[in-house]
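Practice problem: predict the structure.
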Amino acid sequence: MTSKIRKTSKNLRHSKDKATGLQTLQSSMKWHHMENIAACLWNAYSGLLSDQAMILAINSSFVDPLLQFETQLKIIESSFKIVFAIPTLEKVKEMGNNEDDQEDLKNLYQNILNTFEDTLLILVSKDLYKLQILKLWS
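Answer:
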């Protein structure tokens, strides 16, 4: 009887692993499909994440403030061009083959805008903090 319970328990764990593996595969295939549909959106998203990482790295380094400002300005200009080069939301929705694709593309579109907004907030908050320090020193 005990061996039967162990086998059943082992089979349940194995089936859970299969389900988890299957779900992971389905999820990755779904996003791989989306990558082919909306390469321009994925490129924009990855570019914005890269720009945001560079801005955070520059903020954390001991760089001449003028050089830091000029570099961050170039990066944010690049981010601005990326964001405003993506298609409109209506065109993005048309890229989807079905309702799920359209919803995923809409979420990706929103993530792009949120990332750009976060990057701007990082710059503003860091610069205001620096201005407050400079004001205290003067």
